[in-house]
Amino acid sequence: MTGLLQLVFDGVVVGAVLALAAAGVSLVYGGLRIINFAQGDYMTLGAYVALGVSSGLRLGMVAGVAAATLCTSAFAVVLEPVLWRPLRRARAGVLSLFVTAVGLSLVLRQGILFAAGGGFQQYRVDAYSAWQVSGLRFPTEEVVAGAAALAAILTLATLLSRTQLGKALRGLADSPELTAISGIDPDRLAVVVWALAGALAGLSGVLLALVETSFDTNLGWDQLLTVFCAVVLGGIGSTYGALIGGIVLGLVMELATWSGFAGGVPASYQLVVAFVALVAVLLVRPTGILGRSRIL
Amino acid sequence: MADAGTSGEARAEGGDVGGPLLDVRAVGVTVGGVRAVEHATLSLREGAFASLIGPNGAGKTSLLHAISGFYRPSAGEIHFGGRRIDGWPPHRVAASGLVRTFQRGRVFARLSCLDNMRLGARDHPGEQFVANLARPRARRRREAEVTSEARELLAAVGLGPKADDLAGTLSGGQRKLLEFARALMCRPKLVLLDEPMAGVNPTTGRQVMERIAQLHAAHSLTVFFVEHQLDVVMAMSDHVVVMAEGRVIKSGPPEEVRSDQAVHDAYLGSRRRREAVGRRGDEALAARAPGRDEAGLR
Amino acid sequence: MSSVFNVQFWAYVGVIAGIYGILAYSLQLQHGFCGLLNFGQVAFMALSGYTMAILVVKAGLGLWAASAAGLAVAGVFGVLMGIPTLRLRADYFAIVTIAVGEIVEYLASNMTSLTGGAAGSINLLGPQNAASYDGAWQDAVSRVQSWLGHAIGSAATATVATMAVVWVLLVLVALAVWFLVRSPWGRVLQAIRDDEDAAAATGKNVFRFKLQVLAVGGVIAGLAGLLFAFESATISPTDYDPTITFYAWTILVLAGTTSIAGVPLASVVFGILFAGVLFFTFPPFSYLGSADRSYLQLMIVGAALILLMRLRPQGLLGNRQEMLLG
Ligand SMILES: Nc1ncnc2c1ncn2[C@@H]1O[C@H](COP(=O)(O)OP(=O)(O)OP(=O)(O)O)[C@@H](O)[C@H]1O
Ligand SMILES: [Mg+2]
Predict the structure, then answer these.
(1) Residue A268 has what DSSP assignment?
(2) Superfamily name and number for B1-106+188-259
(3) Does residue A138 carry a pLDDT above 50?
(4) Among C92, C295, C309, whose Cβ lies nearest the Cβ of A92?
């Protein structure tokens, strides 16, 4: 029983962290029709920025997290006029946008490798500190990461449901043509979308690195599949859906390893479990949990 | 050009014997959380030349989507030629002889007009993966048939010179003509036309309607078309169905519809409309209002 | 590291480029002519390669029979993948296929008893017993080599012969795609690409056509997977890395998505670009270590992709006017 509770805890933490990245993918797809293949590498970028600030500059982990969020966001924003705006002007299709994102992902990942080198990295935190409560172990950084991720999720959800901007963003996902006639300046909107998506990726990346305790330049790339699964599971373009999808997926992946569940799936099959869960949901609900069905 | 289907003659003799060709019973359609059509009931006899009118947003297009299988009705039944077709996928409905066109004229933009037309044909062995490879003679024979038919029909709607141009280069009106001609390629029993004249210049529009009327007369093609130009509707159709606010409020011969008070009200201001609908004992209108607001937000 | 003028090296590049070109044709049929965005095509390569290797090594089947089985498995997998995913909206389909590509590689590394695990097909008979499957292929290649020898003498090495075989197959695939696309069957595919709803409204069973094109594309990709396996004598999961799909997409986009003649040209350009980076041995690149240089190689590939999309989204032989028709 304690084993199960431990898995629930782990699942929620990992799920919440992935949910952030998934929400970023969802925002970008919903608003700009870009399947951001580079989202994983944005996460890695965040993790390395935090490493530079917290360990390199010795400014501590809090500054590291803040820097990761801001720098990744800034990076994503800078690329908007440089990379995406001209493509939008040229009415590039989903494929051109996707291929550009693939190229960007390659450049970023190899660029980080080039700059930071291969090999595993760790933050300067005490990896062994943990709270023990009646047989359950709550490693400090997991608790902190989980709390930060949940706080960010709540903030994002509030932003989306309460503010005018959030409503506009959600509306976009259903009919992108609407922006053209709704009077919202598409360039400004794109900047906002990228700022949010970048911040979410950076934050998610540094938190993921904390949870995994050691990481390399494949940190985000390795999670890309899970992040995309979360997006589709929740319903593409639905940011709430992506948040829910991330947490559900985190839970499913951890709980599948529970020994009470048919002896437990080996940890190396967690990704397969995530994928099977995705296909199962899509068979029942082809639009994901919160996605809308196609309208003529 | 006159011969769009020899089998049409045979069908004409059997007309009017059985039940209605199309029978829509208490159909409801929900689109993105909005109830676009409610409890719509209508029937068309074989050989009818019927029209569907109503103010913008009345639910005409949504009803056509439901009949042609693109939307699954949330309530009610649809029967075509004696078979229940609601729940059928669109391609099956089309293959059974009920073909529709789209309001904004949907063509295959990166194919030539001729190819667009050929795609309308039924029973082409070349479209079957195995037969395409295994029966080259049958494929070629049918292809030749289909091509000559396609050229004839293209010429009939005035697109003959455009046969080899990509359909994406056509104007909006030309696309509607092409789409209509494509629909005729499969020799349908019933065509549903969503505003065939909209966006087409008035002269051509009239020619198209005349062409439709000819085909109707020659081959007992049953026609059901949505149109906003009431003079055309009243002059040409033998049966008029009126929708407003998602409901069928009247159906009958043009004279009868023309003199109906509820129909007049439906085309006037909202205050009058509400009264009119209220008179018909329809309190559902009030219940629908929140649903619409929700849609407005999205 | 080879010299720029080494024929063997370029023949090898030609082999790989040709295989990617065949893979690009499978994507062209599915995307250029049917509008499907399949980013998991490498899965079909892996399935047919592994099926072939397992059947030869474990079931003792002949190479050619096992290869046919591999192609069949790839085709069937297209249908299996299509059933749950094709009912999805196009964008869901695209994203799910990314996952499919990764999952197959993942399974190949983890199902050790079936696939030999991370060590690859050499481990199929267990650690002490190095497994090999490509005897019949080697024989075939040496026969081609001796024919070629009559024509071009000592330049006809095994690699050159392999390249010849691969490119002949590429041309055959091109002809098959060309035939299919201009047949009435291919016309329906293009109709689906242009407007799925209108295609359904003309009575075409869109789902069935898409399943068929996934199966046919799967077989073509399976052929690329087999060639990959033959050429490298032993396969491991990383040989079927998901990035391979993106290289093939690069070739397709470079060619122009509907340009059949563009694919071989784009394959050559891609091969030269990709391998050419290896020869950046002049300053400032010569100051870098070999690891750094390989990072740089992929960065340049990525940057080339971005530039291509920016400057010539319709590809080398594509038609921009046509691309924008809607
Ligand atoms: N995609 C959609 N999302 C939400 N609501 C929709 C959608 N399409 C239609 N509706 C709603 O359904 C109702 C009926 O629309 P429909 O298109 O059937 O009207 P129509 O009678 O064809 O109008 P028109 O004459 O303007 O073509 C309208 O109230 C409309 O707001
Ligand atoms: Mg309408």
Answers:
(1) G
(2) P-loop containing nucleotide triphosphate hydrolases (3.40.50.300)
(3) yes
(4) C309
